[in-house]
Amino acid sequence: MPSSVTALGQARSSGPRMASSACCCCPAAVQRRLPILAWLPSYSLQWLKMDFIAGLSVGLTAIPQALAYAEVAGLPPQYGLYSAFTGCFVYFFLGTSRDVTLGPTAIMSLLVSFYTFREPAYAVLLAFLSGCVQLAMGVLHLGFLLDFISCPVISGFTSAATVTIGFGQIKNLLGLQNIPRQFFLQVYHTFLRIAETRVGDAVLGLVCMLLLLVLKLMRDHMPPVHPEMPLGVRLSHGLVWSASTARNALVVSFAALVAYSFEVTGYQPFILTGETAEGLPPVRTPPFSVTTANGTISFTEMVQDMGAGLAVVPLVGLLESVAVAKAFASQNNYRVDANQELLAIGLTNVLGSFVSSYPVTGSFGRTAVNAQSGVCTPAGGLVTGVLVLLSLDYLTSLFYYIPKSALAAVIIMAVAPLFDTKIFRTLWHVKRLDLLPLCVTFLLCFWEVQYGILAGALVSLLMLLHSAARPETKVSEGPVLVLQPASGLSFPAMEALREEILSRALEVSPPRCLVLECTHVCSIDYTVVLGLGELLQDFQKQGVALAFVGLQVPVLRVLLSADLKGFQYFSTLEEAEKHLRQEPGAQPYNIREDDVLDPRVTLLKA
Fold this sequence. Notes:
Blueprint: H1 5-20, H2 28-33, H3 36-39, H4 45-73, H5 78-82, H6 86-94, E1 102-103, H7 106-116, H8 120-139, H9 151-168, H10 170-174, H11 183-192, H12 199-220, H13 231-245, H14 247-265, E2 290-292, E3 295-297, H15 299-306, H16 309-331, H17 338-352, E4 361-362, H18 364-372, H19 380-394, H20 404-415, H21 422-430, H22 435-444, H23 449-469, E5 473-476, E6 481-485, H24 491-506, E7 514-517, H25 526-542, E8 546-549, H26 553-562, E9 569-570, H27 573-580, H28 593-597
Helix pairs in contact: 4-7, 4-14, 4-18, 4-19, 4-20, 6-17, 6-19, 7-8, 7-16, 8-16, 8-17, 9-20, 9-22, 9-23, 12-13, 12-14, 12-20, 16-17, 16-18, 22-23, 24-25
């Protein structure tokens, strides 16, 4: 718990500069692959204090969340803890963001549940294979592929996942059992059996949600602390800060204590988590085959069973982790290396599979706790990792008494902020067409996650292609017609441009001269060159002229090398209009391709 906001701010402000500074004894290439070398030589006692506080705060959040997310993934509770510590140690060496924490998340747990059929062996193998895909993308610098997933698609998927996860916990909140996991069946059976609600679970779950909400509001509305305040005020502020930061651990502990009190009396009104495997996970290779009562399932069959999950899980994991890292880097004024983040999360999943972890990614909620706690370097993750390992070794017997309704409350309160209500209103005012990929993704993700993401990405791609094939053009009427493409000019757009030029200049009576203003055209291809050549011929046949203005050097070079008959280029629109109106003193530029290639040669009039 920080003694003052001033100390926290000073420590935080020095963190980014040190984390991004170069160490004189280490080559830059080595530092890019091992970012720890950039900040470790300058590590200070003040940073150690802040990192310890932040790591402890995140650990108290991570343990109850890990138990809860294992329920979302359809796995025994210990698998959530198995997944919560490897990323802490890997990111210590490879991470480029001081704030990010890797571990199980609600969205990733939902995907694991969907693609691994609630089988731990499938979940662990999926972590290994996802990590391999992510590592390959990082090594090959394929992080740019994530840029093709637009923000509306990401928001649509995240919002759909939030609804799916949140509603999926209603059954645990109300104490309902034997509810199907498929979303639409889940909704139907939950309302069908609402009369079977267990009063004890419902009351405890709602009380836990209320406590979590109150503690969160207290944290969000805490006034800043100043060193000149009385000691008692600062101590009370620190106490409230600690309680609100560790609210998940406090609420779950409170619920477990209530459940244990009833257990002692011989009456248990709650459905409990039950037995959790004790001790640290064994270190072993991921299961490349599974033996069942009906025989052995081979590696090939397991891969076929997981199907599209082998693409969806690593992709979503990368999207979530990089998005979290970039968001907090922008907020706290430092930079992250996206490809290095891919390597960090990929190696985390590969190594995690050797200790029975399921796929993990960057957690927005725990990263926010980390940042708000004043973390200065990725060393805070070491404290979190050690805390999770200690809980596995010594506290698993106590997890038996945690009511499932309390864990459901933790999950619902964790995912609720992920539903982005503002984006609908924002897109309505900014660009309504972007609501289409958002809504397509949102609706189809309730059917199949991969179909939702794929359909949303395809709709976004079609919109992008349409804008490239039908660029907007600005037309200025006057003695000479001026047409200016508002964006680039590529081969899909040539036919539309040709039709507009013909309709405005050559299919009218009498035909008109035209100036094509190309300021926004930065490159052209062979199809465009052919189209422009045909237009020049059409204008010559009609006895009128087509002139070009504002050509950038790469475009001018291509047009000159094509040796188009009748090609005329002017430096300014005024000169082009004078020439086309047959006024004296304005002549087109007569230059050779070699002149354009030579930077010493300026454009000279003939």
